[in-house]
Amino acid sequence: MSILRTYRRDDDGTLKFREAWFSTYEGEELGQFVINHGTVGHVSSTETAKDVTDATAESLLAAFAEQCQEDGFVAITDEQQGWVFVQYALKTATGTDRDKYLQTTAKEALTGHLAWRGLGTVESTDFATRKLNIRILSPEPKKAVAAIKTCLREAKLDFTKLSIATAPYEAPESAKQAFPLPAKGTFSLV
User: Fold this and answer.
1) Over the stretch 134-168, which tens digit does the pLDDT of each residue have?
2) Contacts 24+ apart (CB under 8 A), 155-160
3) In what order do the strands lie in the sheet with 82-89?
4) Which spans in the chain are helix H?
5) How far is residue 1's CA from residue 21's CA, in Å, rounded to a whole number?
6) Are 149 and 142 in contact (CB under 8 A)?
7) CB–CB of 21/44 below 8 Å?
C-alpha cells in the first residue's frame, strides 16, 4: 500500500491534512483508492473509489498530488514532527502474555485513532525493563496526547499504569512527561 500524506497550516494556525492511498483486495487485481482529509485532531472525511486497477490508482494518486500542491498542501518530513511516547509500567522485566496482548491492542487502537485524525503514525513498540513503549511520530504532539488519552480510555486499556511524554524529533532522549502531571520522576524509555 502506498500512501501520500500532506499538510497545510492556515493563516489562523489551524493544521489541515489530506492523504490518499491505494490498497488491493486480498488475492485480487482490483483495489480501492481512498482520499482522507480534514483538520488535524478531528475525525476526517473520507471518499473511496472501489474496483480500481493499479494503472488507474497511479493516475489518481498523481492527480491528487498535483491538486495538493496547487492548494498549498505539502508532505512534511519526520524532522518537522515531534515524538509522543506512550508507556505502560509492567510487573515483570520482560512482559507477560497479557502485556504482549496490551502491546498489540494498544498499537492497533492508536494506529486507527490517530490516522483518522491526521495526528500521526505509530512507528514502533518495544519492551524495556518493566516498561512497554509505543513510539508515535506526530505533526501536533500536544493534540496527539489528548487524543491518545481518549483512545486508550475508549479501548478500556489500563490507565493506572500509563505515562505519556513528548519530545522534539531530534532529541527523543529529552522527553518531558505530559501525562500524568505532575510528573513523579524523570521519564525514560529504557
Assistant:
1) 999 999 999 999 999 999 999 998 788 899 999 99
2) 155/105, 155/106, 155/109, 157/102, 157/105, 157/106, 157/109, 158/88, 158/102
3) 121-128, 131-138, 82-89, 162-168, 176-179
4) 54-70, 97-115, 141-154
5) 7
6) no
7) no
